[in-house]
Design brief:
The chain has one domain (10-177). The two termini are 23 Å apart. It is elongated, with a radius of gyration of 19 Å. The chain has helices at 10-39, 45-53, 58-84, 95-127, 134-140, 142-181. The protein is an all-alpha fold and 182 residues long.
Length: 182
């Protein structure tokens, strides 16, 4: 087991966290399309609604939603990485600790960001949406969507945290090996 290693700088932790966030984001990326399919909504409806919130429509709205979702995952991972280097007790030294910290992060993001944005931004957009047919399907299944989103935030956290732990271990070992060779 690796002990607290200040050799892995905050900058490197932020970089690793950013990549870990992207890995977690891609891990749930396909699931979001599967949820759209299972609800009978058009593919990319979740992302499209995010794009509608910024005034886009059609394919452009879907692409904006996808990019903003991945940028959010990247930001979450970066903050996660920085947080892991702020104090010895927060250092992630095992896959298990990374996964648990990731789950905690996913739950916090779900409760603090996703739920309020969904209730106060996304749902009103769906209710007044030009997405005829799709909006009815999404509104009728809003409880299922919230439960599925909670599950996806947990999956995101597990993947992000485990990936982060592995990458920090590799980085720490490479620094240790380089310092021994010098």
């Amino acid at each position: 087991m690796i002990s607290f290693d200040p050799a892995v700088s905050l900058r490197k932790r932020a970089q690793i966290g950013c990549v870990a966030g992207l890995v977690g984001g891609f891990a749930i990326f396909v699931s979001i399309f599967v949820i759209d399919l299972s609800l009978g909504a058009a593919q990319g409806s979740f992302y499209k609604i995010v794009g509608l919130a910024v005034g886009s429509s059609g394919l452009e709205a879907t692409l904006i939603g996808m990019v903003s979702h991945m940028l959010t995952a990247c930001l979450m991972g970066t903050v996660f990485g920085l947080g892991s280097g702020m104090h010895k007790k927060m250092y992630i030294y095992s896959i298990k600790k990374g996964a648990v910290a990731g789950i905690t992060t996913g739950l916090v993001v779900f409760g603090v960001f996703f739920v309020p944005i969904s209730l106060f931004v996304i749902m009103p957009i769906i209710q007044s949406s030009v997405m005829v047919g799709e909006s009815g399907v999404l509104l009728a299944n809003s409880s299922l969507i919230m439960i599925s989103s909670l599950e996806l935030h947990i999956v995101f956290g597990v993947v992000m945290g485990a990936f982060f732990a592995i990458a920090v271990q590799v980085e720490s070992k490479s620094k240790f090996t380089l310092s021994r060779e010098a």
